[in-house]
Design a protein that fits this description.
This protein is α/β, with parallel strands linked by helices. It has six helices and ten strands.
């Protein structure tokens, strides 16, 4: 039986997806609230992890251990570092990297993680589903690279550095950790992120202004994929 685990970081992201779930039940484990139910005919387990890589990794592992998930999808918002992206555009991760992981002192490239490599690829079958639906929605959707770090990026020079180094499209604070745990546990993974802001020195304000609408867009893409 297919069990789809959905991991989000924030209240607004959770609220939009929760609207899509029928037959809801809540199970609380170690202060994490797991919402089980259905989207269409698929079994869903939705959980909010909180912000940052440690919270994301801990929650993803708990989701895998307790709910026998067969797929993990990270859904939420992100900051655009590709100059061709605008607020509300959608990035589906072909690859996820951790831009703040640095063992270059030992001869590795920036972002290389021992026993993982220089980034984690999303599941090919899930990406094929995305390609099928991407032409049928009203949002600009790009299959690209998500760069994760424990930093809310506001600095323009940092934005440009991450974009140039990794050819990344957006930055976030959880996706890389969720992808890494999924990879290590051999669970198919996909990430859906809608652009909420563009790092420019003042994007914390635009993030707050666009968080709800970007979360809604990401949830609509999730629904179409499911």
């Amino acid at each position: 039986m297919e069990n789809i685990g959905i991991v989000v970081a924030m209240d607004e992201e959770k609220a939009e997806i929760e609207k899509l779930i029928s037959n809801k039940e809540i199970k609380e484990i170690n202060n994490l609230k797991f919402i089980t139910g259905k989207i269409k005919d698929k079994n869903i387990i939705l959980v909010q992890c909180g912000v940052g890589k440690v919270n994301a990794a801990r929650t993803t592992q708990k989701l895998i251990d307790k709910f026998n998930v067969t797929t993990i999808i990270n859904v939420g918002v992100a900051g655009a570092i590709n100059s061709n992206l605008k607020i509300g555009d959608v990035i589906i991760a072909k690859k996820v990297i951790q831009h703040d992981f640095d063992i270059t002192a030992f001869g590795h490239n920036k972002g290389y993680i021992t026993d993982v490599g220089e980034g984690i690829e999303s599941d090919e079958n899930l990406l094929e589903k995305v390609k099928e639906i991407s032409q049928d929605n009203s949002y600009k959707t790009k299959i690209g690279i998500i760069a994760t770090g424990d930093i809310f990026c506001t600095d323009i020079k940092m934005k440009e550095k991450i974009n140039n180094k990794f050819n990344a499209d957006v930055v976030d604070m959880e996706c890389g950790a969720i992808a890494q745990v999924s990879f290590l546990e051999n669970i198919p993974f996909l990430a859906i992120r809608s652009v909420s802001d563009i790092p420019n020195g003042d994007n914390a304000k635009t993030f707050d202004e666009n968080l709800k609408i970007a979360s809604k867009i990401a949830s609509e893409i999730l629904y179409n994929i499911i």
